[in-house]
Each structure stands twice: as C-alpha cells, then as structure tokens.
Automatic annotation (TrEMBL):
Belongs to the RNA methyltransferase TrmD family. NCBIfam families: PRK00026.1 (NF000648), trmD (TIGR00088). This is tRNA (guanine-N(1)-)-methyltransferase. Coiled coil: none annotated.
Length: 264
C-alpha cells in the first residue's frame, strides 16, 4: 500500500518510522511518504494561510499549495507540480498513480463521519491513501471540492472532540489501517480476538506469575480445558462490553441463549 501525508508539520509524523509500521516501511510492505505543504508555496514566507472571507476568528489554509501538493502526489502533469519536483526532499520523487481506481483522499476533520474498525478494514485493502492534514480553522472548501474530481474524497473524524490539526488524527488512522495489512503484524492471529473486531471488547489477560501480590490468575485459565477457557473468555467479553459500552451490544445480532443468560 502507498500512503502519502501532507502537513505543515512533517516532523509530527516521524513516529510512524518506529515499531511495526516503521518495520513495514523498511521492508517495503508500506510505501509511506510525508510531504511538507510549504514546499508547494513560492513566496518568501512560504505562506499557507490567510484570513477567512466573511470574517471570523482564525485563519484558513489557502487552496493553491494544497492543489499543487495533491497534483504532485497524483503524478503531476501541471507546470506547478513539475517545477516543484526538485524542491521536495522528504520523498523519493518517483511517484506513480495507484494501480487500480482513484486514490482515497482522507481529510481529517471533526466535521467528518467518525472513523471506526469497519472503516479501517475497508481502507486496509486500498492501493493508495492520501492524508491531507489541515491546521488553523481548516482548508479552503474549493480545493476540497476540486480534489473530489481526482480522488475518492473521505472527510474523517476520529471522535467527538477537537484537535489542533489533522496530524495526530492521521497517525491514528494510519496505525489502525496499516496493522491490518498482511505482513505488518507478525502474528495475524492476534488480530482476530481484539476489541471491535467482532463488536465485543476483548477479555482480560494475564501472564506469570500465577499469584501476584495476593491476586491469583482465574483458575480456569490454568485448567488446560480449552473449551471452558474459550467460554469463560467470551463471557468476560460480554460482561465487559455490557458494563462499559452497552451501545456496542445493541448493534450485535450473533448472541445465543448462553450469551443472553450472561447478560441478565
Ligand atoms: Cl480528524 N481533526 C481535528 N482537527 N480534530 C478532530 C478530529 C480530526 N477528529 C476529532 N477531532
């Protein structure tokens, strides 16, 4: 999968070079490029923002740097994209269009639909994701509308609270998506019994020692009875979900008689 990120704070995304995602990049499973939006400006101050038409607080990100950055990612063809090619140091320069279909452009915004595990799964099979990290009050709507002619446009929020910009939200989405790509996580089985994979939260887990500060590991986990352990774990998942996220249970249809008895 190819992932491009555009930001005025490319250093923010440095954390993606660490751990499993960094390894996937090193191994070529992920082709991750971070672009500095200011590389697509031509004035002395590398201006990316201006005051809002109609008045109001804060600043708005200008359309043209965004269009040039996105054209660069699309493989260019425009004079602006061509002339800017040499000035971009953070990427390899050999950009190519996605193998099939249009790239998906994710625009992090608290005004978007809320990202979740289903969307992460959907995005994990894409060829090319582009993240446009806005700052200030947001990006000029005209370049968002224009981008819809070239990309599969997906505004996306990560929850009902406000962040200062799209960088952290993009990192959240990139991590959630890329760990679902085959080869990014060492043991794919660790993906199957996770919270949100099947609508239930995960069961509590324990490791050695069997007794720690007078607290014992639940006996059944030491029994070797795999059927009983699986049932116990499902029961704990049901209880935990009912306790902290009853909203998730409402949307579940795979509950049998035993499941319902646990929830009584
Ligand atoms: Cl994606 N961006 C910003 N700026 N704030 C947010 C968000 C995104 N999701 C929740 N709050």
């Amino acid at each position: 999968m190819k992932i491009d990120v555009v930001s005025i704070f490319p250093e923010y995304l440095a954390g993606l070079q660490l751990s499993l995602i960094g390894k996937a990049v090193d191994q070529g499973v992920l082709d991750l490029n971070v672009h500095d939006l200011r590389d697509f400006t031509f004035d002395r101050h590398s201006t990316v923002d201006d005051s809002p038409y109609g008045g109001g607080a804060g600043m708005v990100m200008k359309a043209e740097p965004w269009a040039l950055a996105l054209e660069h990612i699309l493989g260019g063809g425009s004079p602006g994209a061509a002339s800017v090619e040499q000035t971009v140091g953070a990427d390899t320069g050999d950009e190519e269009p996605a193998a099939a279909g249009r790239p998906i452009l994710i625009v992090p915004s608290p005004a978007g639909p809320v990202f979740n595990q289903r969307i992460a799964e959907e995005l994990s099979v894409a060829d090319h994701l582009v993240f446009a990290c806005g700052r200030y009050e947001g990006i000029d709507q005209r370049v968002i509308d224009w981008s819809g002619e070239h990309f599969d446009l997906r505004p996306m929020s990560i929850g009902d609270y406000v962040l200062n910009g799209g960088e952290v939200a993009s990192m959240v989405m990139i991590e959630a998506v890329s760990r679902l790509i085959p080869g990014v996580i060492g043991n794919p089985e660790s993906l199957t019994e996770e919270s949100h994979e099947d609508g239930l939260l995960e069961y509590p887990i324990y490791t050695k020692p069997a007794s720690w500060r007078d607290r014992d590991v639940p006996e059944i986990l030491l029994s070797g009875n795999h059927g009983a352990i699986a049932r116990w774990r499902r029961d704990r998942r049901l209880e935990r979900t009912a306790d902290v996220r009853p909203d998730l249970l409402a949307g579940l249809d795979g509950l049998d008689k035993h499941d319902r008895a646990i929830l009584e």
